[in-house]
Amino acid sequence: MRNSQSVRRGALLSAGGVVMIVCTACVTQPTEQAQGLPASTQRVAFASQCALNVIECTTSWPTAIASVEAEDGQTVTEVDTNSFRVRVTGGSGAVPVQFRGIASIPGNTATQLSYSWSYGASDSDPCTLTAGTVASTESDPELLLDPGFHYIRLTVTNDVHRDEVPLDGCPDSLTDVDSFDFVELQVEVQRY
After folding, report:
1. What's the pLDDT tens digit per position in 71-95?
2. Is the pTM here over 0.70, yes or no?
3. Helices (H), ranges, the chain
4. Assuming Cys at both sites, which of 11, 158, 161, 173 could form a disulfide with 110, CB separation 3.0 to 4.6 Å?
5. Does 42 fall in a domain?
6. What is the DSSP letter of 8?
7. What is the pLDDT of residue 95?
8. Do 5 and 84 sit in the same domain of this protein?
């Protein structure tokens, strides 16, 4: 018995002179490990919207800058531009990975910058480049990632409003949007 409250929540049963306590609201340990964001097959990270020259970006547009930092028991290596390897010794299951986006640049005349971290983007069409599923809107989130390859995109948006944004070579243009930019990181998570 942990405390008297546990006894009050339980039921006393007697079977042949043996008293059993059946706990109906006991604290139990989780039986499953926490699930992380699923890994993907290896591919090349998508370049930013401005880098693809789809949008004519100027200094009033924000610049997305993202990185990965090591946590206790981890080593993080920048393998290439926007490509990181996170190695963890021992354990099993998903790994907490610390992302940093606070170094992103809001752009001239901007007073606000918002962040959106997403995963699972599979659209390589520069006219659309959908972001995938949003995992966090913090500047520096810790995301739980399963071992394997991940493509994590940081999209930053400022408050410089644009009535229309032409997309070079694309049939449509963006209308009624704030200026934005994104960068996609390739992150390989390894347990050894």
Report:
1. 999 999 999 989 999 999 988 899 9
2. yes
3. 4-9
4. 158
5. no
6. H
7. 95
8. no
